[in-house]
């Protein structure tokens, strides 16, 4: 180690720094996660994409033979929109629970970032957008299958599924960050999946129309975010414009915002007090 | 102007003050040590100084910025070596630096231009592509130090940077810190290794129960608080000799089976020990650890 080996940078650094009020302050956090993802993309893609596809095709073809048509379309077509929303939800949830928890709690990645000019707002916004990006990928994979297998009535309408995927991803990323903020360990997430996600999947019309539910359960289902994601996605696949699209979108946005803001406040209490 | 000024800083958790009306001013271009037992408030003081947590009372000026309001701008020019390992285990050495540069708004090109010198500085030039889990503890610490320099900081804050390292790795780490001091960087260092503080720091604040209880250069602290010689006496028949020891030196402290004799006249003490027979002793110059134990007590902080 020669004494001249130290970087002599001095004046060069100050001028080119991220402006403190820039709307892109979250981007380095996103880029960091992307860099890791690129290295581990193989198993990640398999887990996030292949699993829902197998379910959709297995149930769609297998169970579909016994069911015949559901809501006037083959069961596989009916199932496609549910799988799309379900897959996006799962992907966003896993990323903001298990993966974000390991960055926050195990690897102390967030602590390291908080020692730089970035703040907790930047970190969580980066994580929110990252998890949404990953869930977009999951949604796109299902959408691709919908296109390839021709499980749609009107191609133009299926393009509207893109914003639906993003909105659904945002919703479950926001909610996931809230749950992550209060998790003492990985086991805690099992409660969320078993007590929240799984009942929601069964109630919100992934596998069968919510009309099949008793009235009181149907009313409960109307409160769940996944119901609203499917309320947007299913008509778009079946070639109709959704009923009350604004209402669905607003409910999803409200869940996303409430989850994210609660997650921010709870994480601040956890890490910065 | 001082890179870091803390004035009347107080931070309470519940009713307990962890930092209690603490004031501190560190000199530019020097290494300032923050010494204290576990739970004395060292890490909380650093977190306050970085604007990561808000004080209940007091003022903080970091590189001229008022905290916590201007914390992000201030941290742009600060490097931090945290206590816990926070390197990215999925990244190589080089990728760790690349990702960290982005948090300061550095472009990939700028960061890449800085990496070779930083690796050279940290003795990691041949490890650029190595994954973090394959590095030794010392290498990880030096990489964390290199990472803290990615933004060419004026002030580097280190929280117990050599805890858990073997002597070779500690000495290598100290060499790195000395070079930073030579280059005119300001260092703020917490440690509970007295030899580390004595070797590196120009000035030391001893902190306990959230307050600074002594502050000076290491030598001045020793001269002011402790007699120049220490004779540690132990072995068969110590109990009978304690009275004799107490009569011979300015101050005595018994800790378990050892009597610490602090004195200006060590010869009188060692001669008395030799006359007694059966006792053994270690005669050494007083050091910072003696000051520390005198000021913060010998009780365990657990």
Structure overview:
The complex is a heterodimer of chains A (273) and B (302). Chain A has 273 residues and is mainly α. Chain A is 74% helix and 1% strand. Chain A has a two-stranded antiparallel sheet with strand order 1-2. In chain A, strand 1 and strand 2 (73-74) form a beta hairpin. In chain A, helix 2 packs across helix 6 (120-148), helix 4 (75-106) runs parallel beside helix 8 (161-182) and helix 11 (225-238) runs antiparallel to helix 12 (245-271). The model of chain A is unreliable at 1-19 (pLDDT under 50). Chain B has 2 domains: 4-223, Rossmann fold; 227-285, Alpha-Beta Plaits (2-Layer Sandwich). Chain B has 11 helices and 14 strands. In chain B, the strands form 3 sheets. Chain B has a 6-stranded mixed beta sheet, sandwiched between helices. Chain B has a 4-stranded antiparallel beta sheet with strand order 2-1-4-5. Chain B has a 4-stranded antiparallel beta sheet with strand order 12-13-11-14, covered by helices on one side. The longest helix of chain B is centred in the middle third of the chain and has 16 residues, at 167-182. Classes of the chains: A mainly alpha (273), B alpha/beta (302).
Features:
heterodimer, A: 273 residues, mainly alpha, two-stranded antiparallel ribbon, 12 helices, 2 strands, 74% helix, disordered N terminus, B: 302 residues, alpha/beta, Rossmann fold, Alpha-Beta Plaits, 2 domains, six-stranded mixed sheet, four-stranded antiparallel sheet, 11 helices, 14 strands, 29% strand, globular
């Amino acid at each position: 180690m020669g004494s001249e080996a130290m970087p002599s940078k001095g004046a060069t650094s100050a001028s080119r720094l991220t402006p403190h009020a820039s709307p892109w302050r979250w981007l380095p956090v996103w880029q960091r996660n992307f860099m890791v993802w690129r290295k581990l993309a193989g198993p990640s893609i398999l887990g996030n994409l292949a699993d829902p596809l197998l379910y959709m095709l297995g149930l769609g073809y297998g169970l579909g033979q016994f069911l015949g048509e559901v809501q006037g379309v083959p069961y596989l077509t009916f199932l496609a929109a549910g799988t799309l929303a379900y897959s996006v939800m799962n992907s966003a949830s896993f990323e903001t629970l298990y993966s974000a928890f390991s960055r926050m709690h195990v690897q102390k990645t967030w602590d390291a970032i908080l020692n730089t000019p970035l703040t907790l707002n930047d970190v969580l916004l980066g994580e929110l957008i990252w998890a949404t990006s990953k869930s977009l990928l999951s949604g796109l994979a299902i959408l691709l299958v919908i296109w390839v297998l021709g499980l749609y009535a009107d191609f133009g309408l299926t393009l509207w599924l893109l914003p639906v995927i993003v909105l659904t991803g945002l919703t479950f990323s926001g909610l996931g960050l809230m749950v992550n903020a209060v998790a003492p360990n990985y086991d805690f997430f099992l409660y969320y999946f078993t007590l929240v996600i799984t009942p929601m999947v069964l109630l919100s019309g992934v596998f069968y129309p919510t009309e099949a539910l008793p009235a009181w359960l149907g009313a409960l289902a109307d409160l769940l975010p996944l119901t609203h994601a499917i309320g947007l996605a299913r008509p778009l696949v079946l070639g109709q414009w959704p009923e009350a699209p604004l209402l669905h979108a607003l409910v999803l946005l409200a869940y996303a915002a409430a989850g994210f803001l609660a997650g921010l406040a709870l994480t601040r209490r956890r890490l910065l007090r | 102007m001082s890179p870091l000024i803390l004035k009347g800083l107080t931070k309470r958790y519940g009713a307990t003050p962890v930092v209690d009306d603490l004031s501190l001013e560190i000199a530019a271009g020097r290494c300032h040590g923050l010494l204290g037992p576990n739970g004395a408030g060292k890490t909380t003081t650093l977190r306050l100084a970085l604007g990561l947590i808000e004080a209940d009372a007091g003022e903080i000026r970091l590189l001229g910025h008022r905290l916590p309001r201007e914390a992000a701008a201030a941290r742009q020019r600060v490097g931090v070596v945290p206590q816990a390992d926070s390197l990215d285990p999925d990244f190589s050495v080089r990728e760790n630096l690349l990702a960290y540069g982005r948090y300061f708004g550095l472009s990939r090109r700028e960061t890449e231009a800085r990496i070779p010198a930083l690796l050279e500085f940290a003795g990691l030039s041949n490890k650029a592509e190595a994954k973090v889990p394959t590095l030794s503890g010392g290498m990880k610490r030096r990489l964390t130090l290199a990472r803290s320099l990615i933004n060419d900081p004026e002030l580097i804050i280190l929280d117990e940077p050599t805890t858990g390292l073997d002597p070779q790795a500690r000495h290598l780490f100290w060499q790195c810190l000395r070079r930073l001091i030579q280059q005119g960087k300001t260092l703020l260092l917490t440690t509970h290794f007295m030899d580390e503080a004595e070797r590196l720091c120009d000035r030391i604040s001893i902190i306990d129960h959230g307050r600074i209880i002594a502050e000076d250069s290491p030598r001045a602290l020793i001269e002011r608080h402790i007699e120049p010689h220490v004779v540690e006496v132990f072995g068969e028949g110590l109990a009978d000799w304690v009275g004799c020891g107490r009569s011979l030196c300015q101050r005595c402290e018994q800790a378990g089976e050892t009597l610490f004799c602090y004195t200006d006249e060590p010869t009188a003490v060692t001669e008395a020990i030799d006359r007694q027979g059966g006792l053994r002793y270690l005669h050494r110059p007083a050091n910072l650890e003696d000051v520390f134990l005198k000021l913060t007590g010998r009780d365990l902080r657990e």
